[in-house]
């Protein structure tokens, strides 16, 4: 059954009021009509069976038939702190991270970040990425929409999250691997979320690695091969959520 998102504030008196964009998608793309039944989620865990009503304005309205709280979230909270990647890579990373079960996403501006974001452009990007997170939930049947933070400077993120469990993927790390962290409990599982830091194209600089270590982050390697930014974070997230979450 087709799934659509409705903001909780647009659920009034047992009826859901679809946004204009969702209304266009329902009518023009999915070709659904009055009397058809769809699934609606509100981003807070609630899922609704809804019958579409006759169109009375520019936006569609549906009548709630039933509702149920569906918790499809991972029991282990893992946040992705992703160095902003070029082009459509960032969109893909956010989409796949949501599908995998990532709890929240923090786009990161680093020394080697190529994409320049400031002011209104930064806000527009954040809004776009939040929309991608919401759309990914429609596909993968999550009922809570992961928060996508506005882009943060590298040093600001570390300051704001000092003392919290942070894992940095760093290709030059020679001593510690992700396997060791998970097997030897080098980070406390009871303190969540964990923050998984991934560099952009070109990775993190030596200065950033040193700063992260000084702030208490654990630097880890994923092995002898160099992975692309769009591969590394999702692979590491999959491993962590397999060990502690609900994957597998």
Short overview:
This protein is of the alpha/beta class. It contains 7 helices and 13 strands. It has 2 domains: 3-69, Ribosomal Protein L25, Chain P (Beta Barrel); 78-244, Alpha/beta knot (3-Layer(aba) Sandwich).
Kindly describe this structure:
This protein folds into two domains: 3-69, Ribosomal Protein L25, Chain P, CATH 2.40.240.20; 78-244, SPOUT methyltransferase, trefoil knot domain (Alpha/beta knot). It contains seven helices and 13 strands. It is elongated. The chain has 248 residues and is an alpha/beta fold. It has helices at residues 20-29, 89-100, 119-140, 154-160, 178-183, 206-214, 229-244, and strands spanning 3-5, 11-12, 15-17, 37-41, 46-52, 61-69, 78-83, 104-109, 147-148, 152-153, 166-169, 194-198, 218-220. Strand 5 (46-52) and strand 6 (61-69) form a beta hairpin. Strands 7, 8, 9, 10, 11, 12 and 13 form a seven-stranded parallel sheet that branches. Strands 1-4-5-6-3-2 form a six-stranded mixed sheet. The mean pLDDT is 94. Helix 2 (89-100) packs parallel to helix 7.
Percent strand: 15-25%
The CATH architecture of the largest domain can be named as: 3-Layer(aba) Sandwich
CA-to-CA gap between the ends? 25 Å
Shape call: elongated
- Compute the number of strand runs: 13
Estimate the mean pLDDT confidence: 94
Number of DSSP helical runs:
7
User: What structural class do you assign from the helix and strand content?
Assistant: alpha/beta
The value of Rg in angstroms is 20 Å
The largest sheet, given as strand count, sense and whether it forms a barrel, is:
7 strands, parallel
Helix content: 25-40%
Order of helices and strands: EEEHEEEEHEHEEHEHEHEH
CATH superfamily of the largest domain: SPOUT methyltransferase, trefoil knot domain
Which topology of the largest domain does CATH recognise? Alpha/beta knot
Low-confidence stretches: none
Number of domains: 2
For the record, the CATH class of the largest domain is Alpha Beta
């Amino acid at each position: 059954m087709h799934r659509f998102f409705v903001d909780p504030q647009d659920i009034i008196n047992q009826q859901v009021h679809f946004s204009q964009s969702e209304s266009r998608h329902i009518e023009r793309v999915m070709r659904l009509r009055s009397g058809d039944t769809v699934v609606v989620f509100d981003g807070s865990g609630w899922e609704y069976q809804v019958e579409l009503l006759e169109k009375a304005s520019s936006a569609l309205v549906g009548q709630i038939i039933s509702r149920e709280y569906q918790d499809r979230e991972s029991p282990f909270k893992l946040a992705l702190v992703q160095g902003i990647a070029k082009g459509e890579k960032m969109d893909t990373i956010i989409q796949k991270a949501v599908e995998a079960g990532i709890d929240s996403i923090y786009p990161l501006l680093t020394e080697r970040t190529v994409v320049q974001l400031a002011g209104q452009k930064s806000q527009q990007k954040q809004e776009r990425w939040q929309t991608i997170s919401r759309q990914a939930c429609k596909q993968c049947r999550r009922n809570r929409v992961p928060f996508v933070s506005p882009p943060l400077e590298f040093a600001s993120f570390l300051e704001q999250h000092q003392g919290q469990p942070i894992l940095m993927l760093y290709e030059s790390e020679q001593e510690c691997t992700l396997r060791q962290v998970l097997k030897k409990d080098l980070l406390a599982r009871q303190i969540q979320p964990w923050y998984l830091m991934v560099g952009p194209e070109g990775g993190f600089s030596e200065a950033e690695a040193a700063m992260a270590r000084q702030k208490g982050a654990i630097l880890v390697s994923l092995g002898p091969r160099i992975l692309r930014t769009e591969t590394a974070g999702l692979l590491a997230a999959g491993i962590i959520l397999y060990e502690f979450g609900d994957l597998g």
